[in-house]
Amino acid sequence: MFSAFAIGCVILGGLLEPMWVIAMKKSNSFHRPFWATVAIVLIIASPYCMSLSMSEMPVGTSYAIWTGIGAVCTVAVGFSFYKERIDRQKILFLSMIIIGVVGLSLIGGGSA
């Protein structure tokens, strides 16, 4: 199994994904310097956090968890803040992402 540090890093990296998406949207195509700077910092911080987890996790497992969290949270942010529609098909495919991430995490093992 993976340490709390590795799991925490990949989760934090995944949670930073929707944050940089929001910051990029608020930057108005990088015309608002504060939000542009926030977006750039988060764009760097997110994969950096994921990279820290790869000292213990296989690359594929780490990447799947990172992108899965990022994708699910970004859809949730779009729904919550930008009134984007979520239909049955989106729920089905988001569920498949979650099932895949959990499955990879359970069988991840392997050497780093």
Note down, in words, how this protein is organized.
The protein is mainly alpha-helical and 112 residues long. The chain has one domain. The protein is built from four helices and no strands. The longest helix has 24 residues.
Low-pLDDT segments: none
Q: What is the approximate shape? A: flat
Number of domains: 1
Separate helix tally: 4
User: Major beta sheet, specifics?
Assistant: none
- Overall pLDDT metric: 91
What order do the helices and strands follow? HHHH
Portion of residues within helices: over 70%
How are the SSEs ordered, and which strands pair?
Layout: H1 4-26, H2 33-53, H3 59-82, H4 88-107
Helix pairs in contact: 1-2, 1-3, 3-4
Labels describing this entry:
112 residues, mainly alpha, 79% helix
Can you describe this structure in just a few lines?
The protein has 112 residues and is an all-alpha fold. 79% of the residues lie in helices and 0% in strands.
